[in-house]
Amino acid sequence: VDDLIDNGDNTYTFTMPDDPVDLKVLFLRHENPFLDVNETQFFYDPVLWAAENGITSGISETAFDPAGSCIRAQVVTFLWRYAGSPEPTTTENPFTDVPAEGWFTKPVLWALENGITQGVSPTEFGPNLACNRAQVVTFLWRLMQEPQPGLTEHPFTDVQAGSWYEAPVLWALENGITTGASAAEFDPNGICMRAHVVTFLYRAEQLREHEVSGWTSES
C-alpha cells in the first residue's frame, strides 16, 4: 500500500482498492543488547522502549541494571527526555548542588519551572538521593498535568488519606501504571528501581496514546 496513513494511536488506515487484496503483516523483533533483561521479565518491553526512544541507556553496552536504584537526577532526566528534551526557559539555577553545565542541569531546571519537583531545600536539589516510589509516581502525575483520579478509595494501608502522594497513587492505580508492591501495600518509601521507573513511563505512554488529553511534549 503506497498511501498508508498513520493514525497516531498504533492503528493505520488505507483506501481499499476495487480489486481484491492480500494483507500481509510483518512483525519485527526488538533487538535486546542487555544480558540482564530477558523476555520473561515484566520490564522487558519497557526497557527496550526506553532504550529505543533515547529515554535511558544501560549502565554499559550489555547491562541495563534493572534492580539499580534511581536517583533524583536520573528520574527528572528520564522525564525530560520523555517530554522531548525541551529547553528550560530560565537559566537561573538556585541549587548549589546542580552544576552550571551538567548532564542533568537542563532536566532539573525544566522540572523546577514546570512544577514537577522542587528541591530538597531552597538551595539544594539532592541529585544523588535515591527516589522513592511515591516521588516517582508524583513526578509522573505532575508531568501528565495532574489528572484527578476517579477512584476515591484504595486498598493500600500505607498510603495516608490527604497525603501529598495520595492522588498520584490513586491515578497510577486506576490507570494501570502500577498495582503496588502488594495487594495491600504501595510501599511509598521504597526505593524505585530503574526497571520500575521505565515501566511506569512506558505504561503512562500507552495510556496517553489511548486518551484524548491536553498533554504535549512542550508541556
Question: Care to give the gist of this entry?
Answer:
With 219 residues, the protein is an all-alpha fold. 30% of the residues lie in helices and 2% in strands. It contains six helices and two strands, in the order ββαααααα.
Task: Describe this structure as you would to a colleague.
The protein has 6 helices and 2 strands. By secondary structure, the protein is mainly α. It starts with a strand and ends in a 10-residue tail after the last helix.
Blueprint of the fold:
Blueprint: E1 5-6, E2 12-13, H1 44-52, H2 72-82, H3 105-113, H4 133-143, H5 166-174, H6 194-209
Antiparallel strand pairs: 1-2
Helix pairs in contact: 1-6, 2-3, 4-5
Rg (C-alpha, Å): 20 Å
Helix proportion range: 25-40%
- Determine the structural class based on helices, strands and strand pairing: mainly alpha
Q: What about the largest sheet?
A: 2 strands, antiparallel
Sum up the overall morphology in one term: globular
Mean pLDDT over the residues: 89
Which key features would you list for this structure?
two-stranded antiparallel sheet, 2% strand, disordered C terminus, 2 strands
